[in-house]
Amino acid sequence: MNQYQQLAVALERLESSMRAGDLWRQERPPEEAFKSAEPFCIDTMTLPQWLRFVFCARLRESIEHGSALPQQSQVAPAAELQLQGLSTGRRVPVLESLHDIDHVLNTGYLREQASS
User: Fold this and answer.
1) Cα–Cα dist 55/40, whole Å
2) Of 29, 30, 67, 116, which is most buried with the most CB atoms under 10 A?
3) Where in the numbering of this chain does the YqcC-like domain appear (predicted)?
4) Sign of torsion, CA 28 31 32 34?
């Protein structure tokens, strides 16, 4: 699989983990919220909103158009701080998916998955 395909797989995992943790169903922020200059739009959106409406949307658009992908990503560490209040069952799958996305963007490959 190429980097775009691996990223698509990782994004599907993120969406699935957010759906399972009831984090995907977010109200779309108003248009002005997207104009934030802060990292992760932290001043205008919740992290789940940013993940769904900015992060996933932009990466999917890049995949669809074959556009350049970010060369570096450190979303998982920021999410670890922002999602601390969630239960382990809701938080861990999302963080694992974000670590996968970071890894694909940073290295071009999905991380090796631990065998179950």
Assistant:
1) 9
2) 29
3) 7-103
4) positive
- Write down the pLDDT at residue 113: 53
Reported pTM: 0.90
Contact 101, 16 (CB under 8 A): no
CB-based contact 109:103 (threshold 8 Å): yes
Q: Tell me what pLDDT residue 65 has.
A: 97
Q: Tokens for 45?
A: 């959106």
| CA–CA distance, 16 with 38 (Å, rounded to integer) | 27
Q: Are 29 and 14 in contact (CB under 8 A)?
A: no
Each residue of 92-115: pLDDT tens digit? 999 999 999 999 999 988 876 543
In this prediction, the residues of the chain whose per-residue pLDDT falls under 50 are 114-116
Phi, psi (5° rounding) for residue 72? -135, 145
Q: CA 82 to CA 86: how far, in whole Å?
A: 9
